[in-house]
Specification:
about 50 residues, about 75% helix, mainly alpha, single chain
Length: about 50
């Protein structure tokens, strides 16, 4: 997720907009999935 966001931002900055926006969209989707999963399982499951 982190690398996808970083490379996506780089692609947008270096004028490869379509690929960059796609990468940023995938990074956002992965972040949403992680957030939703941790909300169901409980945030304390990270420390276990």
């Amino acid at each position: 997720m982190i690398y996808m966001a970083l490379f996506g931002l780089g692609k947008v900055l270096f004028k490869e907009t379509a690929l960059g926006v796609g990468m940023l969209t995938l990074a956002a989707a992965a972040g949403y999935y992680i957030y939703r999963n941790l909300s169901k399982r409980g945030w304390s499951s990270i420390a276990e």
